[in-house]
Write a structure and sequence with these properties.
There is one protein chain. The chain has 193 residues and is an alpha+beta fold. 38% of the residues lie in helices and 27% in strands. α3 (68-76) packs antiparallel against α4.
């Protein structure tokens, strides 16, 4: 399959609400969820007061796509991960075609943390996040939400809910509601970079 056709096929999967994930044997497959976690881009977004102090101290500088591969590796670098080598290759391919992005927190010249995601229309799909310096990925999350607001995005899909995301106001909606929001958001002509 030609590269551009392969990329288009993958983007169509995400645009239908599916996501790629490797199983325990490293086999890639498309998955769907009956519920979706969303990070609010309105007044419901929140973060701990302790993080406000970190942001006010300017401990981190933020960058987009400065070290995309480093963010991918950071997200995959766990004892148990759903990001296989094959999925890393897909993310890099999507990045080459302008679909996948890294939003990064830097401590001096060191990559301290980041968020990996896919941008389609007015939707940002957060695939994973990591940190090597405490608070780095949280600072990146706050700044990412600000960027998505500035760029007119309306849907920040975090896919699966967890206690960490709940601290930022993440909430869960059912599949039918998600599909309606997704369809509307995909039509918006937005750019991440």
């Amino acid at each position: 399959m030609e590269l551009s056709a392969r990329v288009e096929s993958i983007i169509q999967g995400y645009a239908q609400g599916y996501f790629l994930m490797a199983d325990d044997q490293g086999q890639l497959g498309w998955y769907a969820s009956q519920s979706h976690a969303l990070i609010p881009l309105d007044h419901r977004f929140r973060y701990p007061k302790s993080l406000r102090r970190v942001l006010n101290q300017s401990r981190f500088s933020l960058a987009i796509n400065r070290d995309f591969v480093g963010v991918c590796r950071g997200c995959a670098g766990r004892e148990s991960t759903w990001i296989s080598p094959a999925l890393l290759e897909i993310y890099q391919l999507l990045h080459q075609f302008g679909w996948a992005h890294s939003f990064e927190a830097w401590a001096g010249d060191r990559l301290a943390g980041g968020i990996l995601g896919i941008s389609i229309g007015g939707v940002f799909i957060g695939e994973s996040m990591f940190y090597t310096v405490p608070e780095a990925s949280k600072a990146a999350m706050v700044m990412l939400v600000q960027r998505l607001r500035q760029r007119g995005f309306v849907l920040f899909d975090a896919q699966l809910q967890n206690p960490h995301l709940e601290r930022f106001g993440a909430y869960v909606i059912d599949e039918a509601h998600y599909q309606r929001l997704l369809a509307q958001s995909l039509l918006l002509p937005r750019t991440f970079v």
